[in-house]
Amino acid sequence: MSAYSGRGVHGQTVSTLGARIVSGEIAESDVIDLAALGQDLDVSMTALREAIKVLAAKGLVEARQKRGTYVRAREHWNLLDADVIRWRSDAGDTAAVLHDLAEVRAVVEPAAAAMAALRRDDRDLAELEAALAEMVEAVGAGAAAEVAADLRWHRALLRATHNEMLARMDVFIEPALRLRDVLVHTHSADDPVPSHAVVVDAIRLRDPDAASAAVTALLDKAAQDVAGVIDEPDERETHSE
């Protein structure tokens, strides 16, 4: 789910073509003329084919005999992929991405906090406290440090559930959470530590109801932070299949 790390011509080709697809410049079901695209981007067919492989792994394109390489329907896209999330944001879809993230977190994190309060061991608590301490140190140190500390804390929360599937939910949540954190911590001076500390206290006391309620309050605050830095649309755009 992490962003593609390719650099140079290859990485730029992946980024440019992916952005064109996600923005709708190259529409769903469109057949991609590789020769024309190669000329447009001034890249070799080898670089273009390698880029197509990367985008195919993200669910954006598919190559078939007789039909050629075409853009797949949106329902097949890996919308949890870090690059796809970034391309959606660049195309002006940030509000929708963050709205979806907020709904996913509202389903997962209060229950995870309650479970962590019941199941955590001393090592889990130590990691939550260490992540919280890192958040304290990161306040005022810049968005990058604040984002890294927040992500560490949320990973620790999920792992404290001792449920392997929940622990790996960070793979699904983290790319959009990173986008949200970068946006909020770049524009907001609010201290996120107190709301996270309340959750840690409840988990320390093994109080599942208090832990769940504290995370719900944290998520409400997160929604307010996001609303303060982006213009929410009156109605969410829907995407036809």
Automatic annotation (TrEMBL):
GO MF, any single term: DNA-binding transcription factor activity
Top-level lineage group: Bacteria
Keywords: DNA-binding, Transcription, Transcription regulation
CDD domains named in the record: WHTH_GntR
Pfam families the UniProt entry points to: FCD, GntR
SUPFAM superfamilies linked: GntR ligand-binding domain-like (SSF48008), Winged helix' DNA-binding domain (SSF46785)
Originating species: Prauserella marina
Protein name: DNA-binding transcriptional regulator, FadR family
Keyword DNA-binding: yes
Sections of the chain in a coiled coil: none
